[in-house]
Design goal:
alpha/beta, Rossmann fold, FAD/NAD(P)-binding domain, 19 helices, 31 strands
């Protein structure tokens, strides 16, 4: 046995709760003379010495009857698999490859979806995983393309759920990093998120098939504990299957005590037997009834009110799941606060032991992956990129985290770089940059480019409409509004019928439905100008965060539709002002001056680069919408069947909207969300803290 990496490190302090410990990989030789990885924590192999891929297909695919069950999915139906022990990802890759084959052969699967949920307490670092899977890319060429996609999307090893969305294949991979029992307990079935009206409960999600692939019970009892089987029972329904290579007594007793009927079948390779199980009303039958399924009754049409970043991402996420979406706005797409020339994609950092329930960290990572996908679409469509991945440097002037805490994060997400490198990247010379936070995956979002990509989706229809009324009945909802039909301000009344409405109208959401709390309004004016060649040489070279933020960028086609920006010209952006309880969007010269003074106060050396005359600067003012507890509003309104909201993301809409839209769509369609039950409760628009505070002010 040889160790993959052998480095000498100074002793580290014990990891705090919720901090992920990467797997230690050792190597052994299998029956064919190939090197196979072994867990340094548990001393057990990650897959069979005989043939790990064949084992995955035999144990988990064949004995959960996946080929037959997936092939029989109805239009727009989805199938959910849960795995205990992601390991090398081989089970997922085998499932993905089967799913691709079936979709290529059967046109009826074009609009179906596969949701694969997996847990891992000791995830394999990317470097090791790349080495392991490169062996499989050689041994099983049919997996090579899938392996490359998985590795390209593999997340930094921090706690929580990482949603990897392989959009072209209609497959979602949720990797929950942390203790498996905690991860399963975090999966929301929405029992505690229902409205007071018991007939209006949210569609409950279930697991259809379990892959029980933890290390052997003799090596790791925690994945076969009572708490695991309790969660399996909670998350399953009649007809849910399970398969495992293990026939250990603890496994058989655990499954039987929690509603599963078990059966021994022929094992793989040297293993004489393995277990299959099914949760069924008839304990004497182990045959899966392929007719057992929940009537989906999925919504076919949703109206999204508001075409800012929240509305656009909500519309796209639902459209991507096969829902027809009509998105309406009283003015135009991204005409409000979302329409700044550029938005900085960067997280609000927190000490890493808080990250499991930290929306900003998980939201930032998912957003980056999604915008990179949009970039691929932009290249195909020959439109400007959505995300310019520049990296960003936080000067730690206004933050809740220091360099010692930053060191706990994986370097690919956040790190502190040496002073010389910080100076070189930023272009700053006099500023003390010894303490810094460098975000290599950060960058600038182009709102116009994002709008263009989203509105091209075949399931999305946009129209300008000023909504005047929303009426709800037991089985549908109608949205009525006025639309301009001529330059003389002539208007016509339009009524749209739909299954659901999602209100994404920022601080005006309360006016559309008073069950949505009245939120705090914070005016922010962003400034920009066209620098001279001399100024360009002295200005920062990448986005900087200080008590505000600044960024250089080049005008792209489409920018001038909303803002005064010339295509192809260098621009410099800075701001933004912060004016509480102000919903005005007029341009104020004094706020340009405030943005200038804030920049120079934090980075004095730029006084030699910038003129104090801001009269020629361009500006845009928007209104941030924020709740008293700083969490967005995501969910269905109380005493409602069809009205939902996604709003109040403050200044972090571009980082939070993608993951919040995923959670909202999952709740609407009956899937498991990528946010924990605790987090979803915190985001509920009906949470008592907000409404108590609102009543207290009346």
């Amino acid at each position: 046995m040889t160790t993959l990496h052998k480095t000498t490190k100074s002793p580290k302090k014990p990891a705090p709760p919720d901090v992920i410990t990467p797997a230690k990989i050792d190597w052994q030789t299998d029956d064919a003379g190939n090197h196979v990885p072994v867990s340094g924590e548990f001393g057990d192999v990650y897959f069979s010495h005989a043939d790990g891929l064949a084992e995955s297909r035999h144990v988990f695919l064949s004995h959960n009857q996946l080929a037959e069950r997936l092939a029989n999915l109805a239009d727009k139906q989805f199938f959910t698999i849960a795995e205990l022990g992601f390991g090398t990802g081989l089970n997922f890759l085998a499932t993905w490859q089967l799913w691709r084959e079936l979709r290529a052969q059967q046109p009826n699967l074009a609009n179906t979806r596969l949701h694969f949920i997996t847990t891992e307490k000791y995830p394999i670092p990317l470097t090791d995983l790349t080495q392991i899977l490169s062996l499989w890319a050689h041994r099983a060429p049919e997996l090579a393309e899938l392996i490359n996609e998985l590795l390209a999307n593999y997340p930094p090893l921090i706690a929580g759920c990482h949603r990897l969305h392989f959009i072209d294949d209609n497959i979602i991979l949720d990797i929950w990093l942390g203790d498996a029992s905690d991860s399963l307990a975090s999966l929301a079935t929405f029992d505690n998120l229902t409205t007071v009206d018991t007939e209006a409960t949210i569609k409950r999600p279930y697991i259809d098939a379990w892959f029980l692939d933890g290390f052997a019970p003799s090596c790791n009892e925690t994945l076969w504990a009572e708490s695991i089987f309790t969660q399996m029972q909670r998350l399953s329904r009649t007809g849910t299957t399970a398969a495992t290579y293990s026939c250990a007594g603890i496994v058989k007793r655990g499954l039987q005590a929690h509603g599963f009927s078990i059966k021994k079948v022929k094992g793989f390779g040297r293993k004489r037997e393995m277990l299959t199980a099914v949760m069924a009303d008839n304990a004497d039958s182990l045959e899966l009834d392929n007719d057992i399924s929940v009537s989906l009754n999925l919504p076919s049409h949703t109206v999204v009110i508001g075409a800012g970043v929240a509305g656009l991402l909500t519309a796209w996420t639902l459209a991507n799941r096969g829902v027809t979406v009509t998105i309406v706005d009283k003015v135009a797409p991204i005409a409000g606060a979302s329409g700044n020339p550029r938005a900085l994609l960067a997280p609000n950092m927190t000490p890493i032991h808080h990250v499991y329930e930290h929306l900003h960290s998980i939201g930032y990572l998912y957003s980056g992956r999604l915008y990179c996908y949009f970039n691929q679409q932009a290249v195909i469509q020959q439109t400007p990129l959505i995300l310019e991945q520049t990296g960003a440097l936080d000067l730690l002037i206004k933050t809740n985290i220091g360099t010692e805490q930053i060191a706990d994060y994986p370097n690919e997400m956040a790190t502190t770089i040496k002073t010389e490198e910080a100076c070189q990247l930023s272009g700053l010379k006099a500023k003390d940059l010894a303490d810094n936070l460098y975000l290599p995956q950060s960058g600038l979002i182009n709102p116009q480019a994002l709008k263009t990509i989203i509105l091209k989706h075949s399931n999305i229809n946009y129209q300008q409409l000023c909504v005047t009324d929303i009426k709800e009945t037991a089985d549908k909802i109608t949205v009525t509004g006025e639309k301009e039909i001529s330059s003389d301000n002539d208007r016509s009344s339009i009524t749209i019928c739909a299954d659901n409405v999602v209100i994404c109208a920022a601080y005006e959401s309360h006016q559309l439905d008073n069950r949505i709390v009245k939120c705090r309004t914070i005016r922010g004016q962003l400034s920009w100008f066209t620098p001279t060649a001399e100024q360009i040489a002295g200005l920062p070279k990448l986005p900087l965060k200080y008590s505000g933020y600044c960024a250089p960028f080049i005008g792209q086609s489409g920018d001038a539709e909303v803002n005064m920006i010339n295509e192809g010209q260098q621009q410099f952006l800075l701001g933004a002002s912060f004016v509480d309880a102000d919903a005005s969007t007029d341009i104020r010269e004094e706020e340009n001056q405030q943005n200038y003074e804030k920049l120079l106060e934090d980075i004095p050396e730029l006084s030699h680069v910038l003129s104090d005359d801001t009269s020629t600067w361009q500006a845009r003012a928007g209104v941030r919408t924020q709740t008293i507890d700083y969490h967005p509003l995501v969910g269905r309104l109380t005493q409602s069947r069809h009205i939902w909201t996604l709003s109040a993301m403050g200044a972090k809409g571009y980082a939070l909207a993608p993951i919040c839209a995923e959670a909202l769509a999952d709740m609407m369609l009956g899937s498991f969300a990528p946010l924990s039950a605790v987090m979803l409760a915190r985001l509920s628009p009906n949470r008592s803290r907000l409404h108590k505070a609102q009543k207290a002010t009346i």
